[in-house]
Specification:
Radius of gyration: 28 Å
Number of helices: 2
Order of helices and strands: HHEEEEEEEEE
Shape: elongated
Strand content: 25-35%
Strand order of the largest sheet: 3-2-1-6-5
Number of strands: 9
Helix content: 25-40%
Largest sheet: 5 strands, antiparallel
Distance between the termini: 98 Å
């Protein structure tokens, strides 16, 4: 005689093998889709280049104040490289960025535009315009304080 109970002898749920298979499929899907979601966009490349430039300017300013010597932030407009002298620290901007500069005449040598940071905090100053596709950003280095300030592209003189 069969008896009926409120519970079934078979348990509901998933086996460990089924769970592992689902996790592997999910992992593969994420691995294939993630690069498409996080690839570089022009706006992101532009923002990254501006942030690198601001970081280099702050480092040059700090180096001048700590060393007690003039420090130069040298910008190669063609190669899109930044070099802090005399320490020689270097930075690379995104290669597709178009870069223009307005600096003091004595700090311009061909395609090399420089800003000189003095130990007391002043600089020779300058404005740097970054362009990528339709996007533009500008950064001004204050001649009085050496601090960087982001500008709208239409604010550039």
């Amino acid at each position: 005689m069969q008896t009926s109970s409120g519970t079934s002898s078979k348990r509901a749920g998933f086996t460990l093998t089924e769970l592992l298979a689902a996790l592997i499929v999910l992992g593969l899907a994420v691995a294939l889709v993630a690069p498409m979601l996080f690839r570089n966009s022009p706006a992101r490349d532009l923002r990254q280049s501006v942030e690198v430039f601001e970081t280099a300017a702050r480092m040059a300013r700090t180096e001048a104040r700590l060393s007690g010597r003039d420090t130069l932030l040298s910008v190669d407009l063609d190669a899109r490289t930044l070099t802090i002298l005399p320490s020689g620290r270097g930075f690379q901007l995104v290669r597709s960025i178009e870069l223009r500069a307005t600096v003091a005449d004595q700090e311009l040598d061909g395609n090399i535009a420089s800003v000189r940071f003095f130990p007391e905090g002043a600089t020779t100053g300058g404005v740097f315009l970054f362009t990528l596709d339709e996007n533009e950003r500008a950064v001004r280095i204050s001649w009085l304080t050496g601090q960087t300030e982001r500008l709208e592209a239409d604010e550039v003189e």
